[in-house]
Amino acid sequence: MRFFLADLHIHTALSACAETEMAPQAILERAQQSGLGLIAVTDHNSAENAAAMLAAAEGTGITVWPGMEVQTREEVHLLSLFDTLEQVTLWQEEVYAHLPPLKNKEDVFGVQVVLDAEGDVVRHNERLLQTSTSFSVEEVVQRVHDLKGLCIPAHVDRPAYSIIANLGFIPPDLGIVGVEISHLLSLQQARTRFPQLERYGLTASSDAHRLSDMVPRMTLKMAEATVAELALALAGEGGRAVWVDGVCSVRGL
Amino acid sequence: MSNMKFGEIISIVEGTLLFDADLDMEIPCVCAADLMSDVLAFAESGSVLLTGLCNPQVVRTVEMSDMAAIVFVRGKHPPPETVALAKQKSVPLATTPHTMFEMCGRLYQAGLRSCDISCRV
């Protein structure tokens, strides 16, 4: 088993709401400064900066999971995490096919920039990404798991874009093993305020939209840095575990 | 069914403006929704948004869809960041103490129509 200081929810400048400083090399340097060993790139409804992140990470010793923060038709945010660029690219094709055919308005939502590994602008993504796909929550979970990814509902404690806020509750047969809490709550506060989360392991990542947001809170104990291992860790299987703010956050505790 | 002045809408919903606005704006229709992705799909230019959602995304959606104003229902008051963005974008905001259902009913009975859903995404 190995320990990983992890941040599994980071936006690049491809997300309209993120700062332009969120370029691959800057993110990785900040990750190195903080001692992070595992990060995930999770832009809104797109993974077009994942390749650049993976390329920039080579030789740094940091594992990057290519992912995405998908917005369902119920306006719920779900993190979809993958091991490979091929997997996230397949998922991106499906997500793009389920977005409305609207163009982004940069003066309204912000710019959505596709970057190369050096942080140079390749192009602006013209699709409106800051909106809902036509997928339901159940459909996203199913499709992501079918593609061998892992789906984690994002910031479930927040009043907006959260599965609990928008649906009122987490569907009991959703097939997820863990959920993410936001930086607004400690682990104990989350467990107290949301007792229904007892059956889920909890993750805590930065949801970084600027470099200074990247403050690590989570340690993972896994055999290797794969999403399958994370699923086992959230369930506390075989000696694996997840800690948030130094306290074990696996399900059932 | 015809246009209605914004001031008359405020009167019908017993609304309170959050800052000064042009009450003579002509409003052709209303979009009542809490899901902003729905609003993006069918709201018409110049319409009023009736909603319970208070975060700044509401203002961005209204700007994106070229809508005229926002009325928050059920006594909801938007947070300062929503108000600030609305002032910056010149989007009038108002609040009514009544429910969305009742306000839809009152406005519909007064002659305002719904935004047309047939021609959008």
Which features does this protein show?
heterodimer, A: 253 residues, alpha/beta, TIM Barrel, 8-stranded mixed β-sheet, two-stranded antiparallel ribbon, 8 helices, 12 strands, B: 121 residues, Udp-n-acetylmuramoylalanyl-d-glutamate--2,6- Diaminopimelate Ligase, Chain: A, domain 1, 6-stranded mixed β-sheet, two-stranded antiparallel sheet, globular
Span from first to last CA of chain B?
24 Å
SSE ordering of chain A: EHEHEEHHEEHEHEHEEHEE
| Topology-level CATH name of chain B | Udp-n-acetylmuramoylalanyl-d-glutamate--2,6- Diaminopimelate Ligase, Chain: A, domain 1
Strand order in space, largest sheet of chain B: 2-7-6-5-4-8
CATH first level of chain A: Alpha Beta
Q: What's the overall geometry of chain B?
A: globular
Largest sheet of chain A: 8 strands, mixed
Kindly report the oligomeric state of this protein: heterodimer
Uncertain segments of chain B are none
Instruction: Give the overall silhouette of chain A.
Output: globular
Please provide the count of β strands of chain B.
8
Helix content of chain A: 25-40%
* CA-based gyration radius of chain A: 17 Å
Assign the CATH architecture of chain B.
3-Layer(aba) Sandwich
* Total of DSSP H or I helical runs spanning 4+ residues of chain A: 8
The total strand number of chain A stands at 12
The order of strands across the largest sheet of chain A is 7-4-3-2-1-10-11-12
Quick rundown:
Chain A is α/β, with parallel strands linked by helices and 253 residues long.
Topology:
The complex is a heterodimer of chains A (253) and B (121).
Chain A: E1 2-10, H1 24-34, E2 38-44, H2 50-57, E3 63-71, E4 77-81, H3 85-97, H4 106-109, E5 113-115, E6 121-124, H5 137-146, E7 150-153, H6 163-167, E8 178-181, H7 187-193, E9 201-204, E10 218-222, H8 227-234, E11 241-244, E12 247-248
Parallel strand pairs in A: 1-2, 2-3, 8-9
Antiparallel strand pairs in A: 1-10, 3-4, 4-7, 5-6, 10-11, 11-12
Chain B: E1 4-5, H1 6-12, E2 16-17, E3 26-27, E4 29-32, H2 36-42, E5 48-51, H3 57-64, E6 69-72, H4 80-88, E7 93-95, H5 100-109, E8 113-114
Parallel strand pairs in B: 4-5, 4-8, 5-6, 6-7
Antiparallel strand pairs in B: 1-3, 2-7
Helix pairs in contact in B: 2-3
